[in-house]
What we know:
By secondary structure, the protein is mostly helical. 47% of the residues lie in helices and 4% in strands. The chain has a domain at 49-237: Glycosyltransferase (Alpha/alpha barrel), CATH 1.50.10. The strands form three sheets. It has a three-stranded antiparallel β-sheet. The protein has a two-stranded antiparallel ribbon with strand order 4-5. A two-stranded antiparallel sheet has the order 6-7. The chain is globular, with a radius of gyration of 23 Å.
Amino acid sequence: MASTSSxxxxxxxxxxxxxxxxxxxxxxxxxxxxxxxxKSILFFQGQRSGRLPNSQEISWRFxxxxxxxxxxxxxLTGGYYDAGDNVKFNFPMAFSTTMLSWATLxxxxxxxxxxxxxxxxxxxxxxxxxxxATATPxxxxxxxxxxxxxxxxxxxxxxxDTSRTVYWVTSSNPGSDVAGxxxxxxxxxxxxxxxxxxxxxxxLLKTAKNVMQFAMQYRGTYSDSLGSAxxxxxxxYSGYEDxxxxxxTWLLRATHDVSYFHFIQSLGANKATDIFSWDNKYxxxxxxxxxxxxVENDKAFEPFKQQAEDFICHILPNSPSSSTQYTQxxxxxxxxxxxxxxxxxxxxxxxxxxxxxSFAKHTFDCGGLYVTSNTLKALAKKQVDYILGDNPLxxxxxxxxxxxxxxxxxxxxxxxxxLATHPQSFGCDGGFQPFYYTANRNPNILTxxxxxxxxxxxxxxxxxxDFSHSEPATYINAAIVGPLAxxxxxxxx
Length: 493
């Protein structure tokens, strides 16, 4: 039997332990998913390149990149800057577009009034991608802006004085990966606009078919063709086979043309994976293909369902085959740099496969772990809630959401006074000393931006120079739009 003093010490220990846990855990309950959804879409306005419309709500941004494409005698204005820099990398931009389109297709009815804003965000990208695919026969333009010179500068997009070099792939210098992803984006978007703008949808789908044919016919990675123009920034580390699978999967859904199914079968893409990102699309394609079995009861797609479930068994924390680390606070942790891109992308697959499982009243087994649709939805909700503030720091990793969020994000436009307050140009080096190397908060709020996120110990320094944790990106946000719409709709549906 313990002594009285021992019991007292034990009680004190539990008191302070529980107090610590209480202080480190959000007590706000369910976050406002509808507000987060609206802001996650609004973020894309802050990434716009080109001539901004009168409807622009992020008012500290102005026109930029108005001569993009001129060095190649084509119009390549528009599109999005990928992250905190001023470069237009089409590979991640197209992936972001595909994910926004998938979110709208799956969860558009749950978006409420935000569905129009989601379509506007998609169209800002597809208008640009159409130019890239049709401006010059035999060429697919895949980016604007020299990343090596751009990354040596810290200046607003409105002030850009770096080289706006244009990059492309051709039959002799192929890029099956970037072409396959572009085809996926255009095909997915074509379904989004099928009812609201049929002629635009037809143009998107026609272009998607042509770009996919180019991707299939001329094989090779764009990294090999373009070298330092895309590496190490957005190298195609996983090769191009996953983009061929991904592009064909989206064209199959958009057209129901069985030739795409035969092509998918010919790829023999059986590689196991425990990741989903702008670079690696295997898991996304398999979840999308499994829809044919679970929702449409087409048994020919059963192998893809098995592959999708193998992927999920690598994600679930209690699965015997799990290869996914979780922080003490419960965040999925894949890689040290910009980890939230993986958390949001995988969360999208969890909610979507869970949706298909609900429809089919389907369950499966991970080596003895019984998995239901609610299993996946609960894990997805945990990830979304963590990002929105239910975490040990009680910090929202979405800028402008909640009271405590990152104030020093790694983003040129956000960190430098806008043209409205400082009309004079800062130039390439002008922003470093006063605005980059400072502990001051960013003067412009990039509403809705989700940063790279905390480290494996749930820590976040809020340091602008720590880009792997403090930089937002289009592909982080694009992937969370679907889950946010799902949970926003769940409150009323």
